[in-house]
Amino acid sequence: MARAKSRLAPAAGDALRPGLALAFAQDTVAAALAAREVRDVVVVTDDAAAGAALAELGARIVPDSPAAGLNAALAHGARSVRALRPGAAVAALNADLPALRTEELERVLIHASEFPRAFLPDAAGIGTTFLSAAPEVEFRPSFGGPSRIRHIISGAEELLLELVDSVRQDVDTGDDLHAAFALGVGPHTEALCPAFVRQTQS
Fold first, then answer.
1. Which of 6, 22, 106, 184 has a Cα at 20 to 30 A from 172?
2. How many whole angstroms separate alpha carbon 130 and alpha carbon 121?
3. 60-62/90-93 β-pairing
4. What is the distance between the alpha carbons of residues 128 and 124, in angstroms, rounded to a whole number?
């Protein structure tokens, strides 16, 4: 987590930034675990401190044995899920969704289940925050940068849903963080950013 979220440094500072990255992940994992459609949450990481904190919430930690970047890690996580639950549907979420609401994620999961593969674009309409694959369908993640268009080209169905802002609001910049606080962040993120809480409430 030490190098995570470098673009947040101007808004949050280098001292706070690693803690924020972990808090975002904790709030994301906690909200996902509470969803009725979710049986397991798997986190692929080699960060021991992050792994311990997320395991404490109930996530299963899988080492990043590919060590080949985000999409390789996501594919590895999907394979680890299906190794234990053959034929399971799988989905991936960004780990930086501190405002994630369980009921909105449930809505996304229900709609996604109607398609072999489906994704949700981020708030900017450029990237991706959610990707799913039905049982026995290859996952094929392509997160990072302008991933919306890559997922469209790959044949994944774009989910055009309203009232799921918390599932789309990932946090890379100070403006993103303000937007997440305007939606209402989870307790781990809120505890680290009381100044942002006061600012968004004023």
1. 106
2. 7
3. unpaired
4. 9
Cβ(101)–Cβ(139) below 8 Å: no
Angstrom distance (rounded) from CA 66 to CA 76? 7
User: Which are the contacts of 50, defined by CB distance < 8 A and separation ≥ 6?
Assistant: 1, 22, 25, 43
Name which of 43-47, 110-114, 193-197 the model is least confident about.
Answer: 193-197
Judged against a pLDDT cut of 90, whether residue 15 lies above it is answered with no
CATH architecture of the domain covering 13-201: Alpha-Beta Complex (3.90)
The pLDDT mean for the chain works out to: 90
Q: Which two tokens stand for residue 45?
A: 């990481």
- Tokens 């999961």: give the residue: 109
Q: Which spans in 34-69 are helix H?
A: 48-57
